[in-house]
Amino acid sequence: MKVAVAGCCHGALDKMYETLELLQRRHNVWPDLLLCCGDFQAVRNEADLRCMAVPAMYRHMQTFYRYYSGEKKAPVLTVFIGGNHEASNHLQELPYGGWVAPNIYYLGYAGVVRFRGVRIGGISGIFKSHDYRKGHFECPPYNQQTIRSAYHVRNIEVFKLKQLRRPIDIFMSHDWPRSIYHYGNKKQLLKMKSFFRQEVESNTLGSPAASELLQHLKPTYWFSAHLHVKFAAFMQHETNSKEELPKATKFLALDKCLPHRDFLQIIDVEHDPNAGDSLEYDAEWIAILKATNSLVNVTQNSWNMPENNGLHAKWDYSVTEEAIKEVLEELNHDLKIPCNFTLTAACYDPSKPQKNMEPVHTINPQTTEFCAQFGLTDINDRIQQAKEESSGRGECEEEEEEEMDSTGSAEEPSEYNTDNSGLSSFNPDEIMLDEEGGDEDLSTCSVDPSPDHPPEFSTSFSDIRVMPDSMAVSSDDATDSNNEELERCGGSRQGEERSPTERALKRIGADENGNGGVKKIKRRNQAIYAAEDEDKTD
């Protein structure tokens, strides 16, 4: 079957689907499935905009709300993960995944589903060491810390995914697995993004947690986004025994969703011709969720996952064939995910803007139904209970917020050997979140929708590529590859936040033209939405 893969969508759904229609008209190709690797921005209304970690100038309604309201319907089944620029309050309603609109499915904090026999997994968010060992404690209304920590990857999600034993066909992450750049054309990458050089050479670019998952899962395909550059790699995995067959992963990172860019790719994936056309639960993943349910944590307290170190009575939460069989029997062998999308918030109305709409913490009926069906903890319900218990003890919200302010950016010991989360790179292709001059007011948002100005597409059709089956890197691309084993240590420079001591640091860098200069270390993130900004950086 044909699978379309998109990079950072940034809420431009009309543009993304129109590009697919253009592809069909020009090349008579239509995908069976569309995957989006984060920064999807499922923004329903003005309150959602306030929950998106971007400066106010980039808070635009875009076009998702039209699909949420039912005005439009996605023309192809769309499955996506979260990134670091999302309506976190909306996605938080669906920690185990669910429909954000008809025919558009979110994988949750981490998840595995099946489509036509193809097994698709993913993990949402980006890695940040000081939040990695915390629970999912955040809920709207967010403060300046939690609006960011809400999308940081947690160790419990990585732990769950590492319990998988059956092969994964496709896996998605927003940030790149650390070290993957050593398995592709590194020279060309640094030519396009020269400001990555220091991190690439020190092997600190990317997520160590994603790297750990890549080594463990060994999927056939791994797709990422985040860094706004197209990059392909081919990684041959080491075998653990002579009996184990060699495995390899074809990695592809996609660019952001803008005209004339490589934001969308079509690949051919082997599938089961006898399988149905419905999105399905994965029985092993459901069994793992049940097995790990006791590990759910909704506090800020940092803790490590069980491991074989003599401190835990149980550390292996992988599931038996019997446990998988029980899940199948519970579902009467019908794994089809129900189409139970429900509106849980008012939809944006261009004729009646509500700039003062406040975000609220919502329990989504999809999550309630899913948890009841499989006996799982509803994370949002648990958070609500914790808040009520806190109020019952007489703890005022102001004290609670001050506590989060003081701990939200504190560095916690990481299970990785180093933490390089203080960014030394400056990526002019991403949104800048300035922490030094005070963040943008979370109450400020723009409701100027882009759909009223339909995009113009280049006659060269340069924003689409149809990928061959192999998706392998050419011999020239592999010049810089040494088949090095992926590193499993170190913090990520793709994170968003810096400790207070890092904020005063400066660096001397060079731009892509080789011009040196002094730059403050703020974030790698800067302008990504407007095409005019893109023209300037290009």
Describe this structure in words.
The protein has 538 residues and is an alpha/beta fold. It has one domain (2-390). 24% of the residues lie in helices and 14% in strands. Helix 11 packs across helix 12.
List keywords for this structure.
538 residues, 16 strands, seven-stranded mixed beta sheet
Structure classification: alpha/beta
- Please count the helical segments: 16
Radius of gyration: 22 Å
Shape: globular
Q: How much helix is in the residues?
A: 10-25%
* Average pLDDT for all residues: 80
Q: Strand sequence of the main sheet, in spatial order?
A: 4-5-3-2-1-12-14
Uncertain stretches of 5 or more adjacent residues: 396-414, 417-425, 434-441, 443-538
Domain tally = 1
Beginning-to-end CA distance, first to last residue: 35 Å
Largest sheet: 7 strands, mixed
Oligomer designation:
single chain
Number of strands: 16
Give the arrangement of secondary structure elements:
Layout: E1 2-6, H1 13-27, E2 33-36, H2 46-50, H3 64-69, E3 78-80, H4 88-92, E4 98-101, E5 104-106, E6 110-115, E7 118-123, H5 129-132, H6 146-149, H7 155-161, E8 170-173, H8 186-192, H9 197-201, H10 208-217, E9 221-224, E10 231-237, E11 247-253, E12 264-268, E13 279-281, H11 283-291, H12 321-330, H13 365-374, H14 379-392, H15 397-407, E14 464-466, E15 506-510, E16 516-520, H16 531-537
Parallel strand pairs: 1-2, 2-3, 3-5, 7-8, 8-9, 9-11, 12-14
Antiparallel strand pairs: 1-12, 4-5, 6-7, 6-13, 10-11, 15-16
Helix pairs in contact: 11-12
